[in-house]
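Same chain as my last thread, 452 residues:
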Amino acid sequence: MSISEILNISKKAIFNYRSAINVTAKNIANVNTEGYKRRRVDLSSVTSQLQGFNQMNGELIQENIVRIKNSFVENQLYYETQNLAKYRLDESLFNQIEDIFAEPSDAGLSKVLQDFWDSWNTLATDPESVTARNIVKDKGIVLSNTFKRYYTSLVQLQRSSAEDIGKKVEKVNSILSQLASLNTRLVANKSRDLMDERDRLLSELSELINMKAREEANGAVTVLVGNQIVLSGGNYSELQVDLSMENNLYNVEIYVGGGSQLTNVDSGEIGSLMHMVNDEIPEIVRELDNMAVTLSIYVNTLHVKGYSLEGKTGIRFFKNNITGASNFELNNEIVDDPTLIVASSRPDEPGNNEIAMAIHDLQYRDIISGSTVSDYYNALVSRIGMKSQEVEFLRSSQEKVVTGLQNTLDSISGVSLDEEMTNLMEYQHAYEAAAKMVKTVDELIQTVLSLV
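reply #2:
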């Protein structure tokens, strides 16, 4: 081997390990940087002719620095993150619904409804009492206000959730715009820093909506949302929110680029919100409306047959044409004059209590969907509680799945300070050895020249 070949080998080694030291130093500097994937120098790809180096500055060219990742684990993590984000928001929303119903408590509808029935029993015990009638009126007003409070709170929760969908869709569009820009830049220059930023954005997107990502050969990424392509190369389609209202409740749909409807948004935070806005809250409101309408019909049907203390009849206890919890109110005549509340089933018999007892006994009759009012309401509250417990369990289980995948990905792509420090020492010693080889060759040449 000639002296020039030895120098070339030494030069290659110096450039090689200097670059490896720089890459290792960058790994250490980014140990806490979100989304950063560690790099390593592929020394086996650098040929003895220095073809793996930029001849201008002696640095390794991009192809010889490898970004450590596992696409399968990443895509699996995106998928599981979508579910986790949905379960977390589901849990939060169901907790808010449970807070609205406040069961069991003195403010809950169950207690208020029981107080209403009990007030009629009190009137039946003393059918000529004006005080008892005032109690019935007051308990009726509390019942009315409770229904309306539930309704108003549920509507407010639905509207705030619908507004959140709009805000999160705007965020999705912003991420898609950034990804489109990154795609264009990555096609021109496969920068690993840009790839880190791209993967970070994809992870953020996976928390918002169900998506799939596919990396193309040119470095760009294609993104599908709900099985529809929303990002390809430098082009993306904005998602648009369409709000419609029926019976004072929102219905939300999402469209792609003003065209086709996105029909299967069932995961991520947006999926959770859409299910709550379009399905859960309207169903709960319908059940409350059913209770309010049924109560008003059955109580009014009995009340109009009765006679007040002054012998008046045909008086409704609740307002006519009640359509649901939103307008569940007492008849204004009753509010203004509680003596119009009836107890007797016959005229000129103020001591008769048959109507008051009949209204009181409504609580034991199967008047709503084959069950009593209390059982119907308790079934609603139980269903809400069971769903709340279910999503809490799913959230807890899903956190373990995501944590396991994240740990797996970190073991592959994450930076280990111990490992990087070991590599740094190895590369530094190799660099010093190469430098010492150059020095030795230089001394050898000086010696040979001194003999001439």
